[in-house]
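Lab notebook, entry 515. We have the chain sequence and a SMILES string for D-Mannitol-1-phosphate, and the next step in the workflow is to get a structural model of the bound complex before anyone spends time on docking refinements. Request logged below.

Task: model protein plus D-Mannitol-1-phosphate, output C-alpha cells.
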Amino acid sequence: MQPIAIFSIVDASFRRSRGLVTIATNAAERLRPLGEADPGREVLPVRILQVGAGNFLRGFADWMVQRANDAGVLRHGIAVMKATPRPELVTGRLTEQAGMFHVVLDGVRDGRPFSETTLVTAVQSVVDAYREWDLCRDLMREETLSLVISNTTDAGIVYTPDDLSAAPPASFPAKMTALLHERWSHFAGDPRRGLSFLPCELIEDNGATLRSLVVRHAREAALAPQFVDWVTEHCRFYDTIVDRIVPGLPEPEAAELRASLGFDDRLIVRGEHYADWAIAGGPAIRDEFPLDRAGLPVRFMPDIRPYRERKVRILNGTHTAMAAVGPLLGCHTVRDAVQHPAVGAYLHHLLQDEVLPSLPSEDPEELRQYTTAILDRFRNPALHHLLADIRLNALAKWRTRNLPVVLDAWSQGRRADLGIFAFACLLTSYAGAFGEMPVRDDETLVAGLRSGFDATHPDRWIADFIASLDWPELSDTATAARLTAETGAHVRALLANEPAHALQTLLAGHEAKSP
Ligand SMILES: NC(=O)c1ccc[n+]([C@@H]2O[C@H](COP(=O)([O-])OP(=O)(O)OC[C@H]3O[C@@H](n4cnc5c(N)ncnc54)[C@H](O)[C@@H]3O)[C@@H](O)[C@H]2O)c1
Ligand SMILES: O=P(O)(O)OC[C@@H](O)[C@@H](O)[C@H](O)[C@H](O)CO
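Result returned:
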C-alpha cells in the first residue's frame, strides 16, 4: 500500500511524492504572501474524504474545518476526491496551490460593510477517481479516515446500474460502495473503521438515500452480506441541510480580490457570512465532528425535515422563481430582482401568500423573521449572484422547490398563481419567445419545448409538454389538467403582452383578491 502523502508548505520544494498528491513545484511561490515568510504549514492527519471541491464545499465545509482546526477544536486534514470524468480546473488548481485557497465572507454587520478572509490549509491531498482510482482505494485503508463530506449537486445521489469492479464505477453512490468495500475488506470488518457520511446535496433525506443506494449496489453486486451489515450497522449516514450563499466569482472580481489579498490564488471563493448546517444526529456525530464547539453555526438535532423544507421552499424556491421571472424584466442578479419594483412585489406576494401558508409552523412570527432575514441576505451588496447561474437546471429545481408549494396550496383549497407564473416564464423563455437567452437545462426537455413551440396556438404546445413530463406528482389526471390550464393562461398573457405588462396585470389581480 502506498502511504498517504500530504501537502506541506514546510516542504518548500513540494516535490511529487510517492503518494496521493501531484504537487506543482512552484506551489509555494504561487501562494506565498508577497514579501512575507513561509507560514510553516502544519501537517494534518487525513480524517475527511471530500467528494467534490466546488465553490460551495470550499466556502462552507472547508471553511468550517479550517476554523475548527484554527480554534484547536479539530485537527482534521481533508483529502479531496474529484469524482467526475470531465476535465475540471478546480482540482487541478487545488493541486497547483498545494491545497490552499482563500474564503472571503462579505456582508453587512450592524449596518456596516463587513468582510472576513480565511486561508484554508486543511486540504492535504487531491485524488482523481478517474486517473488515480488505486490511490482512492489506498485512502480507504487509512485508519485516521472517519468522515465523508460530499456535494455532488442534486444529480449526484441517484441510482443507475453500475459495475463496482470498474475503475471507477460511474455514479457517486457506486463509487462509495466500492470504496467502502475496500475499507471493510482491509480492516476485516472492524466496527471501529466504519465511516460517517455528511452529504451536503440539497435533496430530501440525503443521508438515508445515499445509504439505501450503497446497500442496493452492494446487494446487486452480490457482495458479502457481512459487508452490508457492516455498512448498515457501523457506517453512519446523516441527513443534513446546508445554507450559505456562495455565488461563483467572475474573473474581473476575482482578479481584484487577488490583488487586494496579495496572493495569486485562482480558487478564491466569496460568499456571505451567514451559514447554517443542520445535521440530523445526536451526541455521536457531535462528538466526532464538534464544529459547534468552535463557535461554528452547526446544529445537531433529531429531525431536520422541517428545517429542510422551509429552507428549500423559502430560499431556493424564491431563487428559482426570480431566476425564471427576473431576466424577462431585465434583472441580472438576485439583488436586481428583489429591488425591482414589480419583481420585488411579485416575490413578496409569492412568499407571503403561497410559500409561507404551505409551511406549518408553531411560531409564525419566527417564520416571518426567517423570511425577512433571507430577503435581507438577497440584498447583500457585496454579492453579485447571477440569475443566469441559478437558472441552471431550473426545470428540475422548479419541480422540487416550487411545485410542492403549488400542490399544497391546491390541496388546501388555495390558488398558487404566482408559483405557476414562474413556470410559464421558464417555458416561454426556453422556447425562445423573448429572444435568445442562454439555456442550460435538460436537453431533451428543452428540445421538446423548442420544436413544439407555436406562439399562436400555445395551449396545445403546453399540453403536449406537460404530458411529456415524467413527473410522478402529475400522474393524477386532474392535477396535470389543472397545471396545464393554469400554465396555459399565463403563457397566453406573456405572449400577448410584454412580460412586464403580464406581471403587472397578474399582481393587480392578485392584490385585488388578497385580504
Ligand atoms: N453555491 C451555493 O450557494 C450553494 C449553497 C448551498 C447548496 N448548494 C448546492 O451545491 C450544488 C452546487 O455546488 P457549487 O455551487 O459548489 O457548484 P460548483 O459547480 O462549483 O460545484 C459542483 C461540484 O459538484 C461536483 N459534481 C457534480 N456532479 C457530480 C457527480 N455526479 N458526482 C460527483 N461529483 C459531482 C463537481 O465536480 C463540482 O465539484 C448545488 O446542488 C446546490 O444546490 C450550493
Ligand atoms: O445551487 P443551486 O443551483 O442548486 O441553487 C441556487 C441557489 O438557490 C443556492 O445555491 C443557494 O444559494 C443556496 O442553497 C443557499 O444556501
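Notes for the group: The chain has 20 helices and twelve strands. Worth checking against the assay data. The mean pLDDT is 91.
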